[in-house]
Design goal:
Layout (H helix, E strand, L loop, with lengths): L1 E5 L7 E2 H12 L3 E4 L6 E2 L16 E2 L7 E5 L8 H8 L4 E5 L14 E4 L6 E2 L4 E3 L6 H8 L8 E5 L8 H9 L1 H5 L4 E3 L4 H10 E5 L4 E3 L18 E2 L4 E3 L4 H8 L3 E5 L19 E3 L4 H14 L3 H17 L1 H14 L4
Parallel strand pairs: 1-3, 1-6, 2-4, 3-5, 6-7, 7-8, 8-10, 11-12, 11-13, 13-17, 17-18
Antiparallel strand pairs: 9-15, 14-16
Helix pairs in contact: 1-10, 7-9, 9-10
Length: about 350
């Protein structure tokens, strides 16, 4: 098949997950067209897609009439919003959105939309499906070149402070002190090379993020704010913008990810890991219980965290490599008659 990728704001670069999907479709043998050069992808991951591999097989063209159209909606649809909406009435158009604010966006029902940060407890208007941040093919090949040796350090915490991270801030107050009572915690910022060394030498990494959100429209002051209208939203605070490169990269390098309980908080990546097998889940209401279980499991088996790390590596390669991501996207497109 043929796929045309359209970047409506190409001067601002393409997003990570779109590049990973392009790589996956290539690996499955499909022909890819794009209106943006492959050198323009933006990613905070270890290696952005097309930074080292596969760019020579992408045909750069302004003619995107061939095959199936997929649009990078990270920066919105720009000057093409009206024309794309009109076209979607008669044509099958797919949108990908990994913007931190995608939880607050609605989409025309004619589009098929894949978003990161998908929370089934906070649904927006549109035909929306989850997709994880995933991994570039470059990152996977890089990790394969490393020898996974003995991990002598306990837990890595390397978050840089950023806005709208109430999950991290809350767990710094509740979880981190409990972990410090039993484990050595490395707290440091690092360059990419040191970051990889840290993932290879630590047994586990704190890999949670997100912002706790309460339905503001319950307050009459916010009743007229259109971007706050959810199709469905839980009564308790929900977690928005939870996904990140760190979770997938920790798993890729066999470092046990510690993150929010995906099932408990409605978080969807399109292929979630299994709790206590492929990651350690955190429940805000059971912080002490979670910490006690980690301590108990490690006391029974000193390689407990390393075993979860190895399981996490298998999970992320099997489910969030470019090829695996592309296969799930194609399956959803087929189910909804977009292929």
């Amino acid at each position: 098949m043929e796929f045309s990728f359209f970047f409506p704001t190409k001067d601002r670069g393409g997003s990570h997950i779109v590049g990973c999907l392009m790589q996956g479709l290539q690996l499955l043998g499909h022909k890819i067209y794009s209106n943006a050069p492959m050198t323009e992808f933006k990613s905070h991951g270890i290696f952005p897609p097309f930074s080292r591999l596969m760019s020579e097989d992408i045909q750069i063209t302004s003619d995107l009439s061939r095959g199936h159209l997929i649009v990078d909606a990270f920066n919105g649809l720009g000057d093409f919003e009206k024309s794309l909406k009109n076209s979607a009435r008669n044509n099958k158009i797919v949108l990908l959105d990994m913007n931190d604010g995608c939880n607050l966006r609605d989409y025309d029902d004619n589009f098929l939309v894949f978003i990161t940060h998908f929370n089934k407890l906070a649904l927006r208007g549109g035909k929306i499906f989850p997709i994880g941040f995933g991994l570039s093919e470059e990152a996977i090949q890089l990790a394969g070149q490393h020898i996974f040796s003995e991990r002598k350090k306990d837990i890595l915490r390397n978050f840089r402070p950023s806005n709208n991270q109430s999950v991290r801030n809350g767990l710094d107050l509740s979880l981190l002190p409990l972990l410090r009572d039993h484990f050595m915690i490395t707290e440091s910022f690092s360059d990419p090379d040191q970051y990889i060394r840290d993932l290879l030498t630590h047994k586990a990494v704190l890999a949670y993020g997100g912002d706790l959100y309460k339905d503001l429209r319950q307050n009459e002051y916010f009743a007229s704010f259109k971007d706050l209208v959810f199709k469905e939203i839980a009564s308790e605070p929900v977690v928005l913008r939870f996904d990140s490169w760190r979770f997938y990269e920790a798993a890729l390098f066999g470092c046990c990810p510690i993150s929010l309980d995906f099932d408990r908080y409605g978080l969807e990546t399109s292929a979630n890991p299994m709790p206590w097998s492929e990651y350690i889940p955190i429940d805000f209401s059971r912080i002490e219980t979670t910490t006690s279980r980690i301590v108990e499991e490690v006391s029974k088996d000193s390689f407990f965290l390393e075993k979860i790390g190895l399981n996490a590596r298998k999970w992320v390669i099997n489910n969030h490599s470019p090829r695996a991501t592309a296969m799930r996207v194609l399956e959803t497109m087929t189910q909804h008659q977009f292929l």
